[in-house]
């Protein structure tokens, strides 16, 4: 430790924290700079206390023989030096020795201990001095000779461990060598498209005006659609987190936290399921096990599952999962298991012993694998167990009713018999309050009571260490607690609109606010599990960083398992998740995609951000500070914020639960960043979240049941301004849009190890129906008040363009279908979209194609996707655009204009042939009406190619240029449809009968139509030869 005299001296000479600068006599001291994560990194102008882009801090450099100064500070040495006896100071040494190397002691802006400033290095051989002497060299040395640093210099290791304020995240910009050419090519291609379209308008094809006109309209539409898609990609960025800094800041002993307990805020994890037949409880149970084993303070984590069907199968499966979690979670902590989904972990093909050092790992893994197999057997056998239990108890009830009837009827049964309702029974011998297997009043789908069951109690605030057990795993020194786990099934009654998944999520928001009230909410689908146990900490680095109070949610990319290696139908969707979403992160933030998203609870309640900007002008280039809003519910009533946009009005209708209303201010305060730096705005003091969570009591649980009642949302703003937004199939996009429209920002968190993984449909029919639902939601957004054209001034211009593209892209399907038929009509008629393939047309086509290729290559470079993934995405864009998107447009227009609801369902099904093949579903052909248009396009283009080649070969004056032009574009269409053709052929290339039927009908129809339009001449028909 430094002496008190040196401390007083350094503190007296150090500047104030607000204006800390080195004195003039230290101008030669070496300084470095760190690019801190400021509000400006999130485009938060005007909020940093520093005028420059960097914050200076000192570099800790230990004393070595080459950096010792030759003078003494005030001639008061603290101890002898083995290298000439010197003191840190600025005066010349006795004897007139000139000082070329100096070290000074400064007090940091945070009043930390002294740190050394090094000047020049010289030619001193550090390695030789380190290994030929007993000196120590820096914090990274293998040992320390004693508690003091160096030979009695009055410095200890703690002096060098003092660190300046560190950001928890940082923005990693795309290298200018990639981004600048990318932007330049966008501008070049835009200019070339402008001149090309102008040339097309000025040079019509007089021989086929209708063909020319339709092609020009299609090209204008495609140019506009491309512009909407490419403009939001003008500023892509990457981000990085610092988990070590998060741990140092929130989980290390400090004056405000002497015990070193976690000061991180609470997190509530939501999982939703509805039907155990479509969403197997074993899959959901594995997801819940991965959540319970996440690396986050146990007392700050709570897991909730919403069973919207109220099925006893799900309930008892979750009870089994909690029982297995008591051994699975400590096993994961002991051996640092990844991933913590047991099914995924035991299915890995890699060596399980890699990087495992404990000698009992193999024995523990063998034991836990056996326990997991037994767990799976219990889950799979639950339906039979429940059925036998219900049959036995129903027979008992029937005997009781018969005995009562005999007593009332003189010892004989009445002639009409005794009828007993077949009930569903729980393991404790009571009626299941949810849905019964045989529907009954108050026990049917859409008609059952609300259920809240706390399956694992609130964990103890202090770690509970396990002990040795000969029959189980030795958990000595391992915390065996598991987070709180709650089963929720909201009340449903006939006559109420329950709003599907959005309503279930809002019910969980209210119930969790009563039980745990975590200021952050992470929602997952039942098949998306934690692949990275540190995922919550990764997201918390953004929420707790400087400017994090303005972030409404952190969106993680979706990663999928079980996809065929070729990714035939672009299920991975990497172009969107690694391209478009990264680009939106450079604007106002990525859109919410429904799963893998960490919300700020306060933002989900519909409140405005603490600070926001308004963007004025034609392209939103004029930025101004938006008026501030009250930060508490009570303040909003006394100081209302008047606005001309409904999204900027503060929410008021939260319902009649006083306990819930009181939890709002608590969640807002606990979600603030740590006020450990002068530039942190709207922060909370360190140590404010150290108090343990109070235990649950009966009135609290009863209140949680009350807030999930079906009538609770009556006369409230739930689903309109608060929580998940109702009225759209894609409630996720609308919910994120509303937050951005209020001025909040979002962040895209791409981790080195995937945060979450899930499953996706690999069957063509299932994939198209999934895309149909998304496109239908986009149409609903376009024709609703959530259209971004009606957004507030707090939405950035390019963010508005991105949301406009979300609602606009399905309409491109109409133009795409027409354009896919144009090559066939060119071949049928012998005409082309231009009068001749002249040099100007070919040059324009070449430049447009080359710029598109270069843009794709640069996008591949900054996004990390592969060219094959880009091609698969383009292929499925054509397949989906000619099928699901077109159906969505028709369905949306009929709903808006005529109020007609249309659903596209499967008409026939076939099963997979190989039960052992994990990709067997890829080859299953399930006929659907969505196949009609793409199949028609393929058949028509093939027939047109045959007709075009035949005509040209037998023509007196063959026009090869028009033929090649038509064949090229026809080949372009068929190449994009190739995955669709493979999907129809199945596993062994067998063509379904329906394909032959459609081909025959279309061939006959087109042949007759062509004969009626262009009948043969008389000379040709008679076969005579004129000389």
Automatic annotation (TrEMBL):
| Residues involved in Mn(2+) binding | 501, 525
Annotated spans, Disordered: 1-99
- Give GO MF terms, alphabetically: cellulose synthase (UDP-forming) activity
Residue stretches of biased makeup (Polar residues): 25-36, 46-58
Give its localization: Golgi apparatus membrane
Kindly report the protein's main subcellular placement as a broad class.
Golgi
Name the residues that bind UDP-alpha-D-glucose: 272, 278-279, 308, 500
Give the positions the UniProt entry annotates as the active site. 308, 732
**Keyword Signal: yes or no?**
no
Described function: Thought to be a Golgi-localized beta-glycan synthase that polymerize the backbones of noncellulosic polysaccharides (hemicelluloses) of plant cell wall.
Q: Which family does it belong to?
A: Belongs to the glycosyltransferase 2 family. Plant cellulose synthase-like D subfamily.
Stated name of the protein: Cellulose synthase-like protein D1
Give the originating organism: Linum tenue
């Amino acid at each position: 430790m430094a002496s008190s005299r040196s401390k007083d001296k350094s503190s007296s000479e150090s500047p104030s924290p607000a204006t800390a600068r080195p004195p003039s006599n230290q101008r030669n001291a070496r300084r470095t700079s760190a690019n801190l994560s400021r509000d400006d990194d999130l485009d938060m102008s005007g909020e940093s206390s520093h005028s420059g882009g960097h914050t200076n801090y000192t570099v800790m450099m230990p004393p070595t023989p080459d950096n010792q100064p030759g003078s003494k500070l005030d001639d008061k040495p603290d101890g002898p030096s083995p290298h000439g006896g010197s003191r840190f100071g600025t005066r010349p040494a006795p004897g007139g020795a000139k000082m070329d190397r100096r070290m000074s002691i400064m007090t940091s802006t945070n009043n930390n201990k002294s740190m050394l400033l090094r000047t020049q290095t010289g030619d001193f051989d550090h390695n030789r001095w380190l290994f030929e002497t007993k000196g120590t060299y820096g914090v990274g040395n293998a040992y320390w000779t004693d508690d003091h640093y160096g030979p009695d210099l009055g410095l200890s290791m703690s002096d060098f461990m003092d660190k300046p304020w560190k950001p928890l995240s940082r923005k990693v910009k795309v290298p200018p060598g990639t981004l600048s050419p990318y932007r330049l090519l966008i501008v070049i291609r835009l200019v070339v498209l402008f001149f090309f379209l102008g040339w097309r308008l000025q040079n019509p094809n007089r021989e086929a005006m209708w063909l020319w006109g339709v092609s020009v309209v299609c090209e204008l539409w495609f140019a506009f659609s491309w512009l909407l898609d490419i403009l939001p990609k003008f500023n892509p960025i990457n981000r990085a987190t610092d988990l070590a800094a998060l741990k140092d800041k929130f989980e290390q002993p400090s004056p405000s936290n002497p015990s070193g307990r976690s000061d991180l805020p609470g997190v509530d994890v939501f999982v939703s399921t509805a039907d155990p037949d479509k969403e197997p409880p074993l899959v959901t149970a594995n997801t819940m096990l991965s959540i319970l084993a996440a690396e986050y303070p146990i007392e700050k984590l709570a897991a909730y599952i919403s069973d919207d069907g109220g099925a006893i199968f799900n309930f008892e499966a979750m009870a089994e999962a909690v029982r297995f979690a008591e051994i699975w979670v400590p096993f994961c902590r002991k051996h640092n298991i990844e991933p913590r989904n047991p099914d995924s972990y035991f299915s890995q093909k890699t060596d399980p012993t890699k990087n495992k050092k404990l000698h009992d790992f193999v024995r523990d893994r063998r034991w836990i694998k056996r326990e997991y197999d037994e767990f799976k057997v219990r889950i799979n056998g639950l339906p039979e167990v429940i059925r036998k239990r219900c049959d036995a108890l129903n027979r008992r009830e029937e005997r009781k009713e018969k005995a009562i009837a005999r007593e009332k009827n003189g010892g004989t049964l009445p002639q009409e018999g005794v009828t007993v309702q077949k009930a569903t029974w729980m393991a404790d011998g009571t009626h299941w309050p949810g849905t019964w297997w045989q529907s009954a009043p108050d026990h049917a789908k859409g008609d059952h009571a609300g259920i809240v069951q706390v399956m694992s109690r609130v964990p103890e605030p202090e770690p509970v260490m396990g002990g040795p057990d000969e029959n189980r795993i030795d958990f000595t020194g391992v915390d065996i607690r598991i987070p709180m786990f709650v089963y929720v099934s909201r009340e449903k009654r006939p006559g109420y609109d329950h709003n599907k998944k959005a309503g279930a999520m809002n019910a969980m928001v209210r119930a969790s606010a009563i039980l745990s009230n975590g200021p952050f909410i992470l929602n997952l689908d039942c098949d998306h599990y934690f692949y990275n146990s540190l995922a919550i900490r990764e997201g918390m680095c953004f929420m707790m960083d400087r400017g994090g109070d303005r972030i409404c949610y952190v969106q993680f990319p979706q990663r999928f398992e079980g996809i065929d290696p070729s990714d035939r139908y672009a299920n991975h969707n990497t172009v969107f998740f690694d391209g478009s979403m990264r680009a939106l992160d450079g604007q106002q933030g990525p859109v919410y995609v429904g799963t893998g998203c960490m919300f700020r609870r306060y933002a989900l309640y519909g409140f405005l951000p603490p600070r926001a900007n308004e963007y004025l002008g034609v392209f939103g280039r004029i930025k101004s500070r938006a008026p501030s809003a009250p930060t508490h519910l009570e303040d909003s009533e006394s100081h209302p914020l008047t606005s001309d946009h409904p999204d900027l009005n503060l929410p008021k209708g939260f319902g009649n639960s006083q306990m819930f209303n009181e939890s709002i201010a608590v969640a807002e305060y606990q979600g603030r960043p740590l006020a450990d730096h002068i530039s942190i705005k709207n922060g909370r003091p360190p140590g404010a979240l150290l108090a343990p969570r109070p235990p649950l009591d009966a009135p609290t649980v009863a209140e949680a049941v009350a807030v999930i009642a079906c009538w609770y949302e009556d006369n409230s703003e739930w689903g309109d301004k608060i929580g998940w937004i109702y009225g759209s199939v894609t409630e996720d996009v609308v919910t994120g849009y509303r937050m951005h429209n209020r001025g909040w920002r979002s962040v895209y968190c791409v981790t080195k190890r995937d945060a979450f993984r899930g499953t996706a449909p690999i069957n063509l029919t299932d994939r198209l129906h999934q895309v149909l639902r998304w496109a239908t939601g986009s149409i609903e957004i376009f024709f609703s008040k959530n259209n971004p054209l009606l957004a507030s001034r707090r939405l950035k211009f390019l963010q508005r363009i991105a949301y406009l593209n979300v609602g606009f892209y399905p309409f491109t399907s109409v133009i795409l279908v027409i354009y896919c038929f144009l090559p066939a009509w060119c071949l049928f008629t012998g005409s082309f979209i231009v009068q001749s393939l002249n040099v100007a047309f070919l040059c324009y086509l070449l430049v447009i194609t080359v710029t598109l290729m270069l843009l794709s290559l640069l996008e591949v470079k900054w996004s990390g996707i592969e060219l094959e993934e880009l091609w698969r995405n383009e292929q499925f864009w054509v397949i989906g655009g000619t099928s699901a998107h077109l159906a969505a447009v028709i369905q949306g227009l009929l709903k808006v204009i005529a109020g007609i609801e249309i659903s596209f369902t499967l008409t026939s099904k076939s099963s997979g042939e190989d039960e052992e093949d994990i990709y067997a579903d890829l080859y299953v052909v399930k006929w659907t009406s969505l196949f009609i248009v793409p199949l028609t396009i393929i058949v028509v283009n093939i027939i047109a190619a045959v007709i075009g080649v035949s005509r040209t070969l037998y023509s007196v004056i063959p026009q090869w240029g028009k033929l090649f032009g038509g064949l090229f574009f026809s080949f372009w269409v068929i190449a994009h449809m190739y995955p669709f053709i493979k999907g129809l052929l199945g596993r062994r290339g067998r063509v379904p009968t329906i394909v032959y039927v459609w081909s025959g009908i279309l061939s006959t129809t087109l042949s007759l139509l062509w004969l009626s339009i262009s009948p043969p001449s008389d000379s040709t028909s008679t076969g005579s030869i004129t000389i």
